[in-house]
Amino acid sequence: MGKASQALKAVLEAYGISQNKLAVALGIDRSAVFKWVHGKREPTSDTLVEITKALKEIDREAAREFVRQYLGEIVDDDID
Q1: Residue 52 DSSP SS3
Q2: Domains assigned to the chain
């Protein structure tokens, strides 16, 4: 399972967001979200942006946590 899939699964579980709710916010079929969450497919970089935007509409803190878990030290460290 890739890093994006792990981060997405953790955030959906932690914030009580259903795969269906995310799929509706993205305007896609729930099966795509299922594949990401279960590591059967990794979202593209463009899709990661769309996931973040959709999560932001649902729960801003969930979106922040998704980015933090996916990017890790990149956003935690000061970039000079």
Answers
A1: helix
A2: 3-76 (1.10.260.40)
